[in-house]
């Protein structure tokens, strides 16, 4: 994993500036709080991992950032533009693209047609031959050219995941939000996905937010990791700092496991990951 070292501590409030941001965001559903005063930011050029147990608020935060949900309180921004009250399609126009936990391709359309849908939504608004060329360029960059005339619904799971990412990238976003891209993937597909995310981060000038339960993938690709539990940010840091953070361990494994682990000073990121198998 590359990137600057961050201490794994709860970030201070007030994170104004550039980037895709949530400031003091809370979300409630029928009186139940899914997020509580969350501050979060991702800037262009970085890969940020968002981790936490099931029900911790990860997808809710992604939904708020992309405009699927509106926060009950707090504000969201894309760079200097406040997006708190904007609908999802307006936020997408500002450069926010996303994928979903469940693949949402047009199964009866070809791979090329799926990616053309994304290209048509980019700021350039290409049409005709330009639209096809733009989609083919994205397919080539993601190693999907050989599938361009195949119907998306007939392809293996791992390929369909890549197509969904290609369609999102075809919109020419500033920020790409990936919601559990390795869900349902086998070991080989997860490894290929890690390489794909690393390529995207190095090749495109955008920020990448990844929600994932595959900690090995997350520790490999993310330059910064934010941990949520109970709808609150409990820690932020690099892979090693997060793996040694007691609040994160307790959230995942319970207080007893966390206490026993901290009694063993030689515990590393790798040994933590071994325990999660």
TrEMBL record:
PROSITE patterns: ABC_TRANSPORTER_2. The keyword Chaperone does not apply. Pfam families: ABC_tran (PF00005), BCA_ABC_TP_C (PF12399). Keywords: ATP-binding, Nucleotide-binding, Transport. Residues 20-255 form the ABC transporter domain. GO terms for cellular component: plasma membrane. One of its GO terms (molecular function) is ATP binding. InterPro entries: AAA+_ATPase, ABC_AA/LPS_Transport, ABC_transporter-like_ATP-bd, BCA_ABC_TP_C, P-loop_NTPase. PANTHER family: CONSERVED COMPONENT OF ABC TRANSPORTER FOR NATURAL AMINO ACIDS-RELATED (PTHR45772). This is ABC-type branched-subunit amino acid transport system ATPase component. It comes from Glaciibacter psychrotolerans.
């Amino acid at each position: 994993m590359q990137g600057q070292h961050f201490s794994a501590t709860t970030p201070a409030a007030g994170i104004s500036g550039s980037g895709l941001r949530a400031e003091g965001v809370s979300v409630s559903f029928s009186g139940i709080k899914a997020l509580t005063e969350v501050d979060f930011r991702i800037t262009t050029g970085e890969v940020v991992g968002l981790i936490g147990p099931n029900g911790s608020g990860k997808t809710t935060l992604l939904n708020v950032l992309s405009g699927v949900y509106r926060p009950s309180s707090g504000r969201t921004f894309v760079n200097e533009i406040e997006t708190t009250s904007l609908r999802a399609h307006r936020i997408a126009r500002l450069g926010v693209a996303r994928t979903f936990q469940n693949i949402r391709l047009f199964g009866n359309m070809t791979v090329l047609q799926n990616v053309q849908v994304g290209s048509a939504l980019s700021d350039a608004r290409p049409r005709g031959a330009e639209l096809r060329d733009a989609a083919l360029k994205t397919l080539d960059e993601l190693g999907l050219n050989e599938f361009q005339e195949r119907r998306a619904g007939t392809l293996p799971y791992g390929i369909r995941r890549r197509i969904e990412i290609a369609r999102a990238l075809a919109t020419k976003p500033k920020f790409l939000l990936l919601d559990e891209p390795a869900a349902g993937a086998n070991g080989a597909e997860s490894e290929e996905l890690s390489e794909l995310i690393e390529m995207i981060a190095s090749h495109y000038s955008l920020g990448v937010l990844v929600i994932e339960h595959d900690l090995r993938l997350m520790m490999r690709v993310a330059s910064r990791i934010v941990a949520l539990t109970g709808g609150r940010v409990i820690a932020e840091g690099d892979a090693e700092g997060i793996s040694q953070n007691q609040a994160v361990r307790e959230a995942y494994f319970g207080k007893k496991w966390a206490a026993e682990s901290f009694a063993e000073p030689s515990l590393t990121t790798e040994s933590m990951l071994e325990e999660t198998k």
